[in-house]
Amino acid sequence: MDTPERNQIGTSISKFEDSPVFSYINNLSPIKPVKSVHITQTFNSLSFSSPPSVFTSPHVSFHKESRFLKGHNFLDSSKSKVSSDDGNKDCTNEQAITNAGHLYNDSNDLRQCTDSAVSIEDASVEAPCEHTEFAIELPQTLKYDCGSPDCHPTPCCDNETVSVLILPGNSASVVAYAQDACENNPTEGEVQLQEISQVEPKAEGAGCDWESLISNDTDLLIFNSPNEPEAFKGLIYKSLDSTPEFYNFPPQLLQSSNNVQNMQIVELVSSSSQRETEDHYQPGAASDQLEVDKTQHNHANIALLADNPNEKMDNEPASTLHRGMRRRCLDFEMAGHQRKNPADGSSSGSCMSQSGKKIADNDKHLLTIKRSGESQRCILPGIGLHLNALAKTSKDYKNVKPETLSSGEQINLSSSSSSLHLPTTSQEHQHPLSISASSERDMDLAQDGLQLAEDGSQASAYLVSEEFNQNSPKKKRRKLEPAGEIEACKRCNCKKSKCLKLYCECFAAGVYCIEPCSCQDCFNKPIHEDTVIATRKQIESRNPLAFAPKVIRSLDSVPEIGEESNKTPASSRHKRGCNCKKSSCLKKYCECYQGGVGCSIGCRCEGCKNAFGRKDGSAPIGIEAEPGEETESCEKSVVDKALQKTKIQNKEVDPDSAFPATPLRFSRQLVPLSFSSKGKPPRSSSFLTTISSSGLYTSQKLGKPTILRSQKFEKPSQSVPDDEVPEILHDNASPIVKTSPNSKRVSSPQCDFGASPSRRSSRKLILQSIPSFPSLTPHH
DNA sequence: GAGTTTGAAACT
DNA sequence: CAGTTTCAAACTC
């Protein structure tokens, strides 16, 4: 009860407190609001803390991603469930999505959000695995400004709130619920139904998976109290400022969540604006209302998206997090009850309507989140969606996209082109089936979700879009997004591999091919999910690390999402090492170079001149350090820049110097976590976090987080490159200053990681006098 | 945009 | 494990 949350939450909480649920939660609540921590940090901590459970393949960076994925999942799930027609919803969805995707990017997102001024009032979701009902309530106000007339000018973002709703549950329950609502309130109910219908298909199966996923993923805050009918499945409080809290949930809770049939939800944010919205919003009432109201008023806020407190939060009281309330249905039958409940008169109707709205809102929240991410868009270029995530996300995205599109912010979502792709909200609505399908995926998504989120920005979007497309032909294909995103969307151009081999960047990255792909006879699509998975498994059977990120970064690298999180430890290396003979490791032909890492002993390259670090151990040329630091995504961006520079500079000077440090940063923000399996940054945008492919797939279909986890765990190596680290790290560890031929001094990437940003700054220092090869390098 | 180069992936 | 082939990205023009 005493939880700090209250303080933060403020008034909203008070209501909440009144509710038994609240008290219950409090009792349980392990959750503690995390305050100060930056979101990015949170992620980091989170992600790092746990190995990339999601992926089989070891990805160092994944940890972070994984969590994001979860977030996505939630979002997705919510989306799926909620397809909202309302433009408002769209907005929310967008936000939510953005949020999810941008956990890392928080700062950016927040900024954007503020700009966008999206406010999400509430989201209450009920997800029933069994019965869980997913009611998302959105206050009318939710509509925030997206441009919809209804929307309040108040910028949600300002208030910031990003709320993410996670809905696990079976869609069925939701549907029923909707139906009830319809009965009660035909108009509202219909709308809801529509939305719900979309969701329905998935829901049932998914719900359970979700839970498991969520629980597994841990990152998610979900927990259910089986006992309580209405028990919250999960509440997450989070102050925007403090992102991290999510993870704070006690394990117990998490576990409990597994048991729980219901899903949880979450989220959100809140800001004064939200509150305002809430105020506007008046819950219909009725039995359900309580829940709804709670949700509305007391939104469970999830810090998931937490934005950088610095940026946005500061403005906002932040404190408030909406609480997501979920009803829980102990029994499937219960679900039916719930359905009835909603149906119950006004309440149901109102609830329904509300719920429906809420759902939509939830999505919106997601969207809103995305918005925040918008800023990120650009940044995010790389978010890669894993197939798993994609599947889910796609669905979710679908929902979201539309909304986002409506808001227009979506477009921004960078790379997330996915969002862009998102065709339109309409699609979502149109394709309930897809949603159902998504449900499974969603489950998986929970795991992958993080990735999605990360990748999400870009890849995910793509994937999603694809899925949507495939799944729902009806749907309007993704609205093209802003041109900017398109870049991120770049994909493969496979002609003979059917995109089922590692030749295919998409496949290798664990994502489905998307429209942007120019591939022929592509099987790497959700439609061929089975094939993809089977193929993937085969490949993994041969090489368990086949889908692991090619560039392994030392744990140190774990950077905070925020700023330096990107910093890759100096130890970062290419998984297998390159075998370059003619490119001197100075071109993207070289995977090491492409990945922004120096060549290591493991490389068999000839005439290595890798600017990031030579095989011989010679210190990488100044530039190196930076690139290494960045995540793959970042790397790509960095690399690209570096390459460009190198091209320019190299012509004159050694390529080594070519890489600029700055780009990395930039990229980082965009895609902090992600790193493509290949490390193919090339695509710039796609940094999908590589999720272990296996994990993804498994998660997708199976929706069994556990399995995935196990898999993931199996591959320790990926998770931590410690092995590699030693040499490199050591080198890096010591802040080595390298001078680029250009005369720039560069600290080794490691330095960046380990070191504070200050180092970076130091990098820029130019030391012409210093020999290109720093004696510093410990290596021979 | 076509053609070439390159090196990873896949195959033997 | 080594050698060869296939493949698609990266690169050049």
TrEMBL record:
Keywords of the record, alphabetical order, are:
Nucleus
InterPro entries referenced in this protein's UniProt entry, alphabetically: CRC (IPR005172), Tesmin/TSO1-like_CXC (IPR033467), TSO1-like (IPR044522)
Q: Which GO terms describe its cellular component?
A: nucleus
Q: Name one Pfam family in it.
A: TCR
Tagged with keyword RNA-binding: no
User: Which top-rank group of organisms is this from?
Assistant: Eukaryota
- Stretches for region Disordered: 337-357, 403-435, 709-780
Family to which this protein belongs? Belongs to the lin-54 family.
What protein am I looking at?
Protein tesmin/TSO1-like CXC 2
- From which source organism is this entry? Quillaja saponaria
